[in-house]
Amino acid sequence: MTDPALPPPESVKIGIVSISDRASSGVYEDKGLPALQDWLARALHNPIKFVPRLIADEQQTISDTLVALVDAGCSLVLTTGGTGPAPRDVTPEATLAIAHKEMPGFGEQMRSISLRFVPTAILSRQVAVIRNQSLIINLPGQPKAIAETLEGASAADGSLIQAGIFAAVPYCIDLIGGPYLETREAVCKAFRPKTAQRPLRD
Q: Which of 86, 134, 177, 195 shows the greatest Cβ crowding within 10 Å of its Cβ?
């Protein structure tokens, strides 16, 4: 039961960026931004202000967009698309170019999760970085893969086989001075040391 005396969850500003030449030019409908927004709205108790961007696979444009979102106060920025080996896939390079710290564990975990579903996950080059007080994470391009890497891999009975990357996101944001993210445990159970935990709402 949720304690009615708990203060309301902190609001959070989250940048969501879909990177695609064809979607940004109107050739087909973008599915990345709706997938990111849907998952985050289901996963978090926090009131969220989304700052969406749909842009082309241009390295400088991507870097400039990420910097602008951080400067606008986004504590978390999630990108989707542009992380493969093709010549136009430059999201990791654009992200690393504006980083103050690299967080390699996120990319390692995403590839590990995705390899449970598709062997081509080994071709992915997602990275995560910190810039100022913001965490920036490159996610896969497909909505199904976005949810899998955020939530993790589960067995047929629903038990968790491998934790998704979002379990570590709230504590990371704590450590860099951002708002306290509260997850809905039915979607994603955040991990924090006991000394960093607040009472749960679930």
A: 134
Whose structure tokens read 């599915």?
Answer: 31
For residues 36 and 52, what is the distance between their CA atoms, to the nearest angstrom? 10
pLDDT in tens, 59-91: 999 999 999 999 999 999 999 999 999 999 999
Label residues 83-116 b or e (16+ Cβ within 10 Å = b).
Answer: bbeeeebbbbebbeebeeeebeebbebbbebbee
CA 167 to the chain's CA centroid: 11
| Alpha-carbon distance values, 102 to 28, 66, 131, 165 (Å) | 33, 15, 9, 15
d(CA 101, CA 126): 15
Which of 20-34, 55-69, 186-200 has the largest mean confidence?
55-69
Q: In the CATH scheme, what architecture does the domain 12-196 have?
A: 3-Layer(aba) Sandwich (3.40)
Instruction: Give the residue extent of every domain in the chain.
Output: 12-196
Q: Tokens in use for 5?
A: 């005396």
